Automatic annotation (TrEMBL):
Domain MIP18 family-like: residue ranges: 12-84
Pfam families per UniProt: FeS_assembly_P
Range of residues in the leader sequence: none
Name of the protein this chain belongs to: Fe-S protein maturation auxiliary factor YitW
InterPro entries: Fe-S_Maturation_MIP18 (IPR052339), FSCA_dom_sf (IPR034904), MIP18-like (IPR002744)
Length: 107
């Protein structure tokens, strides 16, 4: 999977769609939170590799549903979405973008 700093074309569109998915507890989108580790688009199939802030995150199921919905809504060429929820590497606050850190008062 490609990491998002190098994303172009469809992968960039996937990331734009994922920026619409906002963690309801933190009020920041999952891309800027650093939860999205990579994306890949292949033959209409969209793959997303991501994590949660903690393994016990109570928002796991709603966030997964939002990821699927956002991609299918924003990418008409997407036929299906597969999310690989991973725990390695574990998420850390320093994975957030500068904008997210600023928004959460961590800058």
């Amino acid at each position: 999977m490609a990491d998002h700093p190098q994303a172009t074309g469809l992968q960039a569109q996937v990331l734009d769609a994922l920026r619409q998915v906002v963690d309801p507890e933190l009020g920041v989108n999952i891309v800027d939170l650093g939860l999205v580790y990579g994306t890949e688009v292949r033959d209409g199939q969209v793959y997303v590799k991501m994590t949660m802030t903690t393994p016990a995150c109570p928002m796991e199921e709603p966030l997964m549903e939002m990821v699927h919905s956002a991609i299918l809504r924003e990418l008409p060429e997407a036929r299906s979405v597969e999310v690989d929820l991973v725990w390695d590497p574990p998420w850390k606050p320093d994975m957030m973008s500068d904008a997210a850190k600023s928004q959460l008062g961590r800058a």
